[in-house]
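User: My instructor asked us to take a sequence, write out its structure as tokens, and then describe one feature of it. I'm not sure where to start. Here is the sequence I was given:
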Amino acid sequence: MDKIRHGKLGGWIAPVILLLHLFAVISAQPGFLSIDCGGKTNYTSENNITWVTDANYIDVGRTAQAGHAALPSYRQSLRLFPKPLNKSCYQLSIAPSVPYLLRLWFVVGNYSGFQNLPSFSFSVETLDMLAVRNITLINTNGYYNERILASSGTVIYVCLIRTSESDDPFISAIELRTLRKGMYGEAKAGTMLILGTRAAVGRNSTARYPVDNFDRMWTSADASLNVQTKDSVQPVSSKVLISTKNTKDFPPVAVMQTAWVVDSSEPSLGFTERPFVQGTNSLLLLYFAEIERLNMTESRSFYITINGVKRSETINLVRNYSVLELSFLSNTTDIQFNLVKAPNSTVGPLINAFEYYILVDTQPATYLKDIEALDDIKRSFNIKDWISDPCYLIQWKGIGCDRSSSPIRISEIDLSGRNLTGSVPKDIGQLSALVNVSLHNNHLTGPLPNFSTLTMLERLYLHNNNLGGNVPEWLSELKNLKELRIENNNFSGLIPVQLLNRSLKLNYSGNPYLCMHKGECILQNSNKNNIRLKVVLGTTLSGILIIALALIAGTIVYRNKLGGKEPKPFLSQDYSMIVVPNPTKSRAFTLDEVMAATQTFSCEIGRGGFGSVFFGKLPEGNDIAVKVLSSFSQQGVKEFLNEVDLLSKINHRNLVSLLGYCNESRELMLIYEHMSGGSLRDHLYGARAEHSELNWKTRLKITLDAAQGLEYLHVGSTPKIIHRDVKTANILLDNNLNGKLADFGLSRMTMEEGVTHVTTAVKGTFGYVDPEYFITQMLTEKSDVYSFGVVLLEIICGRQPIDVKLPTEEVNMIRWVTPYVLRMDENPGKIAEIIDKRLHGNYDMKSINLVAKVAMSCVQAEPCFRPSVSEVVVELKNAMKHEDKASISISEQIDIGTDDLLAGPIYLSVDSGEPKGMEWSDNSANISKMGR
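Assistant: Let's start with the prediction itself. The structure tokens for your sequence are:
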């Protein structure tokens, strides 16, 4: 449809126009958002636009400088998104149904020494409007993309998307400008306007804010002018105030004060615009205002043709100080428009400005109600990596999308293993197209909300949580439900009989209060610390007697099986339905085999959070240690499964080997190689301390063994493993005093490459727990490094981390040793006051000093100041070199052997003197490790 708008304004109102113009300039700035991507500080540019850094809009990627000093400040910095980032998004707030101008800048810099100009994509995503654009830069001077959109939503996401293995996406600046309602009405739900040309005809320089209240960029029209008419046009200008009041899109007054006029001898003035993006339609906006002084005998009349077709009536321009705006929609994107002189016109056509856009039909967003439900779930669990549209281009982690439906629906939600806490969000029930829901392996509590609306649900996984209450009746209403897993929770009461009388794969073990049928309940009284068996068989005395006799008979049979010996207390819960991870990689021992190996658990050699540990010997002669899960265990099934899962995947000479497990009836056991030397803790200040002969070199070698085991977990294992309970009690020794890390029940795997931390409830041992992890619940490998730093201080001091029996100033080991280590260089003899007296001075002081410095760097309050475990390994090898007083490599000194080369990184050091890479400042509040 062609639209022509005329406006008239008398000269008397010119001062009012000026006032309105000034007011618009003053008030336009608050509607601007200008983001200097990668910028370091906020600032105000020369044209009085406030620029802010992108720190509050994105928290991934890294910053760089383009290295083009001649460019404006906002085009000198950039943020790029290296691997493994594939989609990284800025989130910008907008008002619904208001048109916005969005301009993105991309300026290539010399930050990476690129061989070829990078290629990648970006997307603009908001409710009802999703669009992606591929970028292949052709020079280093910069490129900008501008579009106009109006969304019914309240957020715009600008996302940078990797499209090749070698090229990192980047962005230099983002400009968002609020337009007036009614402007660019062609931009609506489902359609964006992509700018091709916005020309201020007759101007030689670019015009933008404050010339344009909306900060549109108006450039020269030279590139669009047809060659055949180029020599016949003349630029004209005027200082007369022009009114844009009656236009739809408010071109700037200054832009309308310049124009091109074609010589009267020429029949037309022509321009050509060619498409630069894929699209089906184009929008052409033409602006006219008579700014030449014509005499009484002169007249200007012309009409518009587009691609040779006449598209307007004859236009008669008169000097009325107002602007005429014409709007043309075309079903082609390659257009040539001409201003054709009318037969009765005495002067040639005139044009002041024009805009050319491609109309891009955007893809529909995911179903709105699904997005709203996911947003609520995101807030409930504080999920940081759910940004932009859940199904567009790269869908959210843990989300499945049914793209066959229109609009796209959410068909799966998988939040397993994310360490989520709190209750199950009721908003999951709003995702009515869900087929699979996986919430297992978290820390969810409370009853299960009503999900009876999920009529398409086939699989519901809730196992390994702390959910409670009754198993709800509405589960039996889900006719498509094929599998329900609720094991290892705190559900109570009766399982709805409808769930037992149908072809449903149901796993409900590990719920101590849950009953399969009335009269067959084994309940645990949670109000007392003791365990009591309750038999609920109704109210008849005969029923009670029957069950009592059955229990007595079972006890007699069980004791006979034990050969008349009193058994050790095992679990009173049935865990036979537990699914053991990686069963083919771990040997499954029978209860009879374990009882024979341990001589019916006759020799208890230890006790920990999991339960008692018994010595045993296999028929082939191997000594074993058997951990038996106690019913009073503070760890339990989750840690059992975690340890089996982890140790079945990894193998290293400095990690204790898991030989297998026993999961039979009501017993859960872990079978390890037996470490006859006990723990490092035992030798330092535990059961073996009185007779231990651990000299400094042996202590150093044991911690180096443990560090190499920890290095394998952090570096050599894929995915990376964080131990979470590094301490001297978990460094076990064989009969040759070789050290091995043990106890992986609390360990965590980081499942995604590039993940910086795992958010999880704080677990570990008092005195070893990283204070940053304790405060933020953000677990990283630097949390293990902190704990290992405590271990290093223990081998120096020969004491436990927290000892309340000592004087107040010595209770906390780290606080006690800090001033001694800080003044070590200026007063070398001072540190001797904290060294274990049982070492009797038999050590190399350089070795002690180095280990002390490494230990203190490990226990820095800020994780970023702590070394990696690989760096710790290198420094411990240097300390060993000082102890041996030799110049050969560390690998030869401690005879690491071929197994180490296969297990993980090996660092050799052959230089002499003090280790390089660490500098220390004498600051008791913050010991900083520099130069990394």
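For the description part of your assignment, you could build on this observation: The first strand starts at residue 3 and ends at 5. Try explaining in your own words what that tells you about the chain.
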